[in-house]
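Q: I'm writing up a methods section and want to include an example of the input and output format. Could you take the sequence below and give the corresponding predicted structure tokens, formatted cleanly so I can copy it straight into the document?
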Amino acid sequence: MPALSPFDYAVLRVVPQVERGEFVNAGVILFCRPLRFLEVRMGLDVERLLALAPETDLASVQEQLDLFPRLCAGGAAAGPIGQMSQAERFHWLVSPRSTTVQVSPVHGGLCADPQTALDELFDRLIG
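A: Here is the clean output for your methods example:
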């Protein structure tokens, strides 16, 4: 049996009307420090979002969501945040905010393969 490594994850949520507190899950971000893994998998159900809030500015929401993969990857394309360590980027990405795209509290788990764990979480929570 392969060794298990700890990981942390959070769910990305689109909250079209912050004052109402309703949201649509739109992705999962997973960080596994021992295996140097930080990735996000996204899949926004636009139809569901528009049923919840027909006036949603989809272009703005997509622009915000598009930042997550770039920031996870790091490097110059991610600006100053991209220069931070993986752990620092993860903690910045999952910090509470009151914008249209928010994150759930951070949860933890154990995995042998973080990509498989991310895929399974995505399927269970988003897909």
